[in-house]
Design goal:
With about 400 residues, this protein is of the alpha/beta class. It is built from 18 helices and 13 strands. The protein folds into two domains: about 170 residues, Rossmann fold, CATH 3.40.50; about 150 residues, 3-Layer(aba) Sandwich (Rossmann fold). About 50% of the residues are buried.
């Protein structure tokens, strides 16, 4: 039996791991060893996700969090290297673009352990984003590149990785969205009562990226525009700890509380419930951009670029320059449009099975199949109606 060591550390990775770990548990040729770096460590940012997404408790929790990017990544690499030397995995699997992703890939490649990267090939083309550096370096260190879109495959080819084993598998977040959509409904009933929300009548906001929170001009501009938006629709904002801290430092929090409903970080199922029933989502998160599409909710993205270009090209998402654009005006434009939610962009919701099959083929042949799956056509309505698949 082959040992796959999966490295996770942040909320988006817990969500993605839920789908693949469920599939790997039913394969008798692969033993998954789950390692939590500790990057997101508090209950709402970590433990709750493992419980409600049915993810097995990690075999190891390294407890590494806080500090500057270089310091955090270095501590993770040191701990992971020792762990890999003792555990001797046959392959290390990493997700996305966090410090945990890069630390897992670098630790493994230095020990000549094959690396598989889920969400390979995504590019914002903004090298000032720590996430962009993490994903580029991880792709170039990896042996197997699981790309979610054709655009991601093309990015890998442009960077000279066409000789590396890569395969188009679709987006594993879509697997999760399909599986948990119905389960999230009960959470909205509770939230709606507590927050006095009405279906399709509120804007859901998430802000956490450093280019927004750590900029002394951008964060106040975002808050002012959200306060203005609250004049014609309720604004709900689960508040990231970093965002809360920065708002307090800049003297924004108490003023904003009079206009915006701030929540403590919510669980995954609570977030899904809010996404499914919001009229509009405003975010700087890559994952939330896609979840908005999965749940048929138009989205405004508080960034100058996005990894998910197809969402912008098809009109489901729009980038916002908070110094030039008016959030209230763009919100009204997005709410006044009609959308074709049946456009298939991210596979058919069976990405986890495709990744499992590629891993098995890799262990058998050393190369995998390299055959892109047929994504076919599927319906967004399948998610929105709450269909659940095992």
């Amino acid at each position: 039996m082959k040992r796959v060591m999966t490295i996770v550390g942040a909320r988006p990775q817990f969500i993605k791991a839920a789908a693949l770990s469920r599939v790997l548990r039913h394969d008798d040729t692969i033993k998954e060893v789950l390692v939590h770096t500790g990057q997101h460590h508090d209950v709402n940012m970590s433990a709750t996700f493992f419980e409600e997404l049915d993810i097995p408790e990690p075999a190891w929790n390294l407890g590494v969090h806080g500090g500057r990017h270089g310091d955090m990544t270095a501590r993770m690499i040191s701990a992971l290297e020792e762990l890999m030397l003792n555990d001797k995995p046959d392959l290390v699997l990493v997700y996305g673009d966090t410090n945990s992703t890069l630390a897992g890939a670098l630790s493994a490649v230095k020990l000549h352990i094959p690396v598989a990267h889920v969400e390979a090939g995504l590019r914002s083309f903004n090298r000032r984003m720590p996430e962009e550096i993490n994903r580029v370096l991880t792709d170039h260190a990896s042996d197997i590149l699981f790309a979610p879109t054709e655009a991601a495959v093309n990015n890998l080819k442009r960077e000279g990785l066409h000789g590396r084993h890569h395969v188009l598998v679709g987006d594993i977040m879509f697997d999760v969205a399909r599986y948990y959509a119905k389960r999230a409904e009960s959470h909205f009933e509770q939230l709606a009562k507590e927050l006095e929300l009405h279906l399709g009548k509120f804007a859901l906001v998430t802000i956490h990226r450093a280019e927004n929170t750590d900029d002394d001009t951008r964060l106040p501009a975002i808050v002012r525009q959200l306060m203005e938006l609250s004049g014609f629709m309720p604004v709900i904002c689960p508040l990231h700890p970093r965002t809360r801290h920065r708002m307090q430092l800049l003297g924004l929090l108490e003023m904003a509380k009079r206009h915006i409903q701030f929540l403590e970080p919510v669980s995954y199922l609570q977030m899904v419930a809010l996404e499914r029933h919001a009229a509009l989502i405003i975010t700087d998160s890559g994952g939330v951009q896609k979840e908005a599409y999965f749940h048929q909710t138009p989205c405004l993205t508080l960034r100058e670029e996005t990894e998910w270009l197809e969402l912008v090209e098809h009109g489901f998402n729009r980038l916002v320059d908070v110094h030039e654009d008016s959030l209230p005006e763009l919100a009204q434009q997005m709410l006044g449009r009609e959308y074709d939610w049946d456009i298939p962009l991210y596979g058919d919701g069976h990405t986890a099975e495709l990744i499992r099959d590629e891993l098995v083929a890799f262990f058998v042949s050393g190369t995998g199949t390299g055959t892109p799956p047929e994504t076919g056509h599927f319906s967004r309505n399948m998610i929105h109606s709450g269909e659940k698949e095992a």
